[in-house]
Design a protein that fits this description.
- The structure holds 3 protein chains of 3 kinds.
- By secondary structure, chain B is an alpha+beta fold.
- Chain B contains 15 helices and 20 strands.
- Chain B has 3 domains: 9-135, Rossmann fold (3-Layer(aba) Sandwich), CATH 3.40.50.2300; 164-394, Phosphatase 2c, domain 1; 409-567, Histidine kinase-like ATPase, C-terminal domain (Heat Shock Protein 90, 2-Layer Sandwich), CATH 3.30.565.10.
- Helix content of chain B is 39%, strand content 21%.
- In chain B, the strands form 4 sheets. In chain B, strands 2-1-3-4-5 form a 5-stranded parallel sheet, with helices on both faces.
- In chain B, α2 runs parallel beside α3 (66-77) and α5 runs parallel beside α6 (210-228).
- By secondary structure, chain C is mainly α.
- Chain C contains 5 helices and no strands.
- In chain C, α2 (20-44) runs antiparallel to α3, α2 (20-44) runs antiparallel to α5 and α4 (67-81) packs antiparallel against α5 (88-112).
- The longest helix of chain C has 25 residues, at 20-44.
- The relative contact order of chain C is 0.17.
- Classes of the chains: A alpha/beta, B alpha+beta, C mainly alpha.
Amino acid sequence: MSIWSQPSMDGQELTINIKGRFDFSVHQEFRSCYENVDDDPREYVIDMKDTTYLDSSALGMLLLLRDHAGGDKSHIKIKNCSNDVKKILTISNFEQLFAIQ
Amino acid sequence: MIDESGPVKVLIADDNDADRMILNAIVQKQGHLVVMARDGAEAVDKFESERPHIVLLDVLMPKMDGYEAARRIKEIAGEELVPIIFLTSIKDVHALAECLDAGGDDFMSKPYNRVILEAKLKAFNRMRGMHATLQHQRDQIAIHNEHLVHEQEVAKAVFDNVAHLGCLNAKNIKYLLSPLAVFNGDVLLATRKPSGGMYVLLGDFTGHGLPAAIGAMPMAEIFYGMAIKGFSMRDILREINQKLKNILPVSVFCCACMVDMDFRKNMIKVWLGGLPDCFLYRAESKEFISIGSRNLPLGVLDNDFFKDDMQIFEMTANDRLYIWSDGIHEACNVNQEMYGEERLVEVFRQAEKADDLFDSIKNSVTEFIGNTERSDDITMVEVKMVEEEYLKDTALIFPSSKSDGPTDWAVSYELRDDTLKTCNPLPLLLHIIMEVPGLHPFSGEVYTILAELYSNALEHGVINLKSEMKSTPLGFAKYYSERSRLLRELKNGFVRFHLSHKPSVDGGNLIIRVEDSGPGFGYDKFDNPEKSLNAYCGRGIALIQELCKSLQFVGAGNIVEVDFEWKQ
Amino acid sequence: MTHVDIEMLTELKELMEDEFKNLLQTYLDDSEKHVIQIQSAINAGDANDVRGSAHSLKGSSGNLGATQLAEFCRQLEFMGRDNELSAAQSTYDTMLEEYQIVKKIISGELMKS
């Protein structure tokens, strides 16, 4: 499994890990890892420590998560991006929508 | 579909009566139906009339041997799988090879073994079922694929009607675009503006196939529809953004770059959201500037949050702007390495002649990926700064005008602070004026006059900026930042349009009077237009003077009136 | 050495049921014809005909358990196939001897059933 999620002890935060390529082939996995969660987390953390590549459909999936998490009121952090991944996020100006660390 | 569980019809062909009787007994005991033939020719006839499912063939038979019969049966069967089991000794290697060659699927030697024959018939019947399922599925896939291709062709035809090539064939444009690019999500649009300038828009939708193509249609429609009506780049982008946001699913959006080229002022405005940096290449100095994305892609945020952050650059003739989708950057070679920006920068560094740059980029990428077919996915455009005169072949063509409509009328329109800050009144005014029958062919001229008068009134009148500022590149940038600041802080400003039209025998006179809230200026210097013609500033007025029968300043110089006389 | 495999014959009887007698009679009629055909083909030097008739007799004899007879027929069939009939007559004579024995046994079976 290349994508898995882990809620914090109090269920307030959900961390999503993405391993390998983040593209359309994993969209079902990505969706189910935040849709099939019992609690309703207030914050999401996407850990891209092991993410090697990100394409435009992945950006679309991030927007879906943002929508799911409350749109403009959502709190989503993206952390541990490699330079390549960060560059793609920056070109698209996604730092206006997500907290990229 | 084949029902494997139903009875199987077996053709037994053997010239020996006793052998045939034995086989018949074995096969019937297993619950199958039997058709019998005494020689090869009869076997082929019986196959044709009875269409058995499985064939047992003796090799040596009178009239026609088993090999020939097998060939004919396979030919008649066509795509259907009809297993043929040869009744022969498997000790004879040559005979076996010939059996296989003739289309035989298996062998049985005498004396017949009931158990083995039963197992073989079962296995072949199952294989027949699988073969039929496979073929059915293959046919389904072929049909679906045909549908899909047909749908794409229709979608492409509709898209071509909506998007057409605009002015992509203009002499200052070079581009790369796959004929089916819309299905990989890429869109390239270009059009002349009524004022003589040009808009170019390159978009890259997420995903591919029909979902990617869907957003391209309203995008093209809005782009061409609003451009011809004289809307500004900001208005067009906002309209496209909101439309895409409304109609597309959350995960689909469009990375884009739009450019507004002004060939008179030698200036471009660039809006970039989500595409890789574009490059501005200076033909003279061989320097290049990379212009970075400052905005979110189109269709992500509602217009309330949409940022229309433009970057303005002056360009001298022969300078070029390069815009591309990430197709170039992500083009992979055989080792799955990406082309990347570094290689692109290197091509620009090594460029000798501006005219060859486009082909150099193309060749460098094609060489890198080592396969010309895949270069189809690359979308790239080069636009060159030129004299407007150079582009007269691709001037905007307006739809033909109506035969009746208002010819004798007047209208006044006053724009106040909030309107001046946010709105562009020109499309509305142009629309009113173009209701005059026969005036359509002059729409470019009329738009230019309106645009020049309006920007003069707003910039040099209402906010009182001095156009002399623009005479250096540095001042040029400062001018536009000052303009934004002063407009934001504007209080008690206005611009009044008073338009009136009087018909003549074969045309008419359009009087445009523009008054602004500014202090006016010493307009006497325009008595001698020659003096100001070569200056960086004041070219707008000179242009109006050329287009109109008369131009005069009134009052403190804060009122200007022109008479545009036209003949059919 | 057995001339006819009785076990095979019993199995056939089970399989054919009422048709068993008919099968034996058919074999006897057919084999008689084939034996004559082989001899006249050898006389005429018609290798192809030797091959065809011997092939046919080989098959049915094998099915009835007359393994030795089937083997002699196979030798004749191959001689025909290879167009080499020099030894055909002597093989035929051996085959004929075996055939007479098989014929007797099958006829006996026919009388029994």
